[in-house]
Amino acid sequence: MREVADGVWSVTAGDFPANSYIGRADVPGGAILIDAGLDPLPIDAALQLLDLRPAHVFCTHGHFDHLGSANYFQDRYGARVHLHAADLRTARTNNFLLMAMKMAARIVLPELTLVDDGAEFAFGGTHLRYRSTPGHTPGSCVIEWGSNLFTGDTLYVRGVGLSKLPGERADQLRASIQALWSDLDNLIIHPGHGPSAPGAVVKCDNAPLRAFLAQGSEPASFSTHV
User: Fold this and answer.
1) pLDDT in tens, 181-217
2) Rounded-to-integer distance, Cα 17 and Cα 29, Å
3) How close are the terminal C-alpha atoms of the chain, in Å?
4) How many angstroms separate the Cα of 53 from the Cα of each of 4, 18, 57, 120?
């Protein structure tokens, strides 16, 4: 567990590691989760150390490494699990994807609360908002909360989030990132894989991303993350 912003911690663990984020919030139990990776136990251990309980799980998209343990937190803490409606099919095909990747893990879907673009949630004096960014999956979103932008596999600090998976569209991903571009300077980027960084740094230093946006073609090498 590492603190990546004021009141925000990242947990990365498991056989298929992805970043799950714990955020301190004015909700019952004192916390929300952004993405719930495939292995719930390290996330739950971090919650216990922080003496927090999650009231909500907000998923950036429906792949197993971002949704996989959401059912655990719903069963254990009664957390509501939120996913963009356009990724319901993606969520329902996770176990087929796990089999195709020759992984032994299987997931159980939680009861999902489906959201649309622009869905907002108020926690005390703060607001969390879904912003639709299709490309990696049809229902991929970034989640804006204060000065934090949780980007799933839409936007990385390093590289480009393309893995040649079913439903992935490079042209849509390019358009989604371009629509975010002018807003990044005042936000901290927290991706689904890899480190966090200020948006201004990402814009300047992520050369593969800049090439992807400028050239209108897929980068030479791809992320293997889903």
Assistant:
1) 999 999 999 999 999 999 999 999 999 999 999 875 4
2) 26
3) 21
4) 19, 20, 11, 21
Sequence letter at residue 2? R
Say yes or no to pLDDT of 90 above 70. yes
CA angle 194, 199, 203 (to 5 degrees): 95
Question: What is the DSSP code (8-state) at residue 144?
Answer: E
Q: Which amino acid is at 148?
A: N
Strand, helix or coil for residue 217: coil
Instruction: Report the mean per-residue pLDDT for the chain.
Output: 93
What is the reported pLDDT for 217? Answer: 47
Q: Amino acid identity of 61?
A: H
User: Phi/psi zone of residue 214: left (φ > 0), alpha (ψ -120 to 50 degrees), beta?
Assistant: alpha
In the predicted model, is pLDDT for residue 45 greater than 90?
yes
Entry pTM: 0.94
Contacts 24+ apart (CB under 8 A), 203-209: 206/156, 206/157, 206/158, 206/159, 208/158, 208/159, 208/160, 209/155, 209/156, 209/159, 209/160, 209/177
Instruction: Give SS3 for 43.
Output: helix
Q: Answer for the pair 82, 115: CB distance below 8 angstroms, yes or no.
A: yes
Q: How much is the average pLDDT of 2-25?
A: 95
Q: Tell me the H-state helices in the chain.
A: 40-50, 64-67, 70-77, 88-92, 94-100, 170-180, 199-205, 207-215
DSSP state of 7: T
